[in-house]
Amino acid sequence: MRPNVFAGPHVDRLKLANVDADAVARAIAGGSARLIPVWKSRCPVVRQPEPAALLLPIDSGPFAGIALDELVLLGEYRGLAIFTTEIEAASPPDLGDGAEFADLRLAAALLPHEDAGLVAYARAMISFRHRHRFCGSCGAPTLPRRNGRVMVCTKPGCETEFFPRVDPAVIVLVTDGDRALLGRQPGWPPGRYSTIAGFVEPGESLEDAVRREVLEETGVETGAMSYQSSQPWPFPRSLMLGFRAEARSTGIRIGDAELEDARWFRRDELQGGSMLPFPQSIAYRLIQEWLSP
Predict the structure, then answer these.
(1) Are 82 and 43 a contacting pair, CB within 8 Å?
(2) Element (DSSP H or E) covering residue 226
(3) Which of 88, 207, 209, 239 is most exposed, with the fewest beta carbons within 10 Å of its own?
(4) Is the dihedral of CA 91, 93, 97, 102 positive or negative?
(5) Calpha distance 204→197 (Å, rounded)
(6) Which of 196, 191, 124, 190 is nearest to 163 (CA)?
(7) Which CATH number fits domain 167-291: 3.90.79.10, 3.40.309.10, 3.40.50.11190, 2.60.120.280?
(8) Mean pLDDT of all residues in 249-254
(9) In the chain, what's the furthest Cα-to-Cα distance?
(10) Residue 47's CB: how many other CB atoms inside 10 A?
(11) Where does 20-112 have alpha helices with state H?
């Protein structure tokens, strides 16, 4: 099965996972290290001659001399040690002609599959680091360890370790024979509808979350369901778990403020995709696979 956008074994996360600071310094000094800086959640890309993620040398250019504790090790990518760091300046650094800091949704549509996954990974790790600058147990500052992949509380006696985490969310295409249930959020472009989605709550299985979210948002009860695929969704740290589910009831009742409308759509109404979510999303894939069984 082809991976969804942002997914796939594009980075060897294990090969460099336990290297020490000296090994990192040697990789930088040897010219085999590259950097993906993140500025305001945007990542560097180039459009010409072919769209690609911009992998910057660490030993020269605007990031020469950057402190090791400012770097987060992502892993090995095409024989290079890849790092990321957050740029907190009000204005982005100059990346040179033809390069820009792009929004990740734009990058997903622009970049080759593996490059899109790489910059998404960088953004997700920067989000983790940014959100764990202070200990969630005692409030003391934290410091990075293990090449930026762990944040550790600095207070003696606490020293809690914080690791990157993802928030699981279910996303489901509910069907009733030749019809599919789609909903619409208030801020979306006119005419756009998508599948039903929501975060998994503590104590819930994925199946329980599917049933609850669909019932909560649309009033439709679901029965048999099957897992389809998953997609990392670094906005900022979700993991979307895609399902198909059969409807046990068909009456729609909008139950909360998440949706402004929900409808049953026939297959012929969805052909052409003008009202569907953007093609890089797992929601689009769920719908397209139903349209073309």
Answers:
(1) no
(2) strand 222-233
(3) 88
(4) negative
(5) 15
(6) 124
(7) 3.90.79.10
(8) 96
(9) 65
(10) 13
(11) 21-29, 104-110
Q: How far apart are alpha carbons 107 and 85 in whole angstroms? A: 18
Name the one residue in this structure whose structure tokens are 């929004």.
Answer: 103
Residue 266's DSSP bridge partners are 179
Specify the DSSP element, H or E, that contains 167.
Answer: strand 167-176
pLDDT tens digits, one per residue of 67-113: 888 999 999 999 999 999 999 889 988 888 789 999 998 888 999 99
Assigned CATH for 1-131: 3.90.79
How is residue 255 written in tokens?
Answer: 């139950």
Tokens found for residue 201: 């709550």
CA-to-CA distance for 192 and 206, rounded, in angstroms?
26
How many angstroms separate the CA atoms of 191 and 257, rounded?
A: 18
For tokens 């410091």, name the residue: 143
Residue 127 three-state SS: helix
Residue 63 DSSP code: G
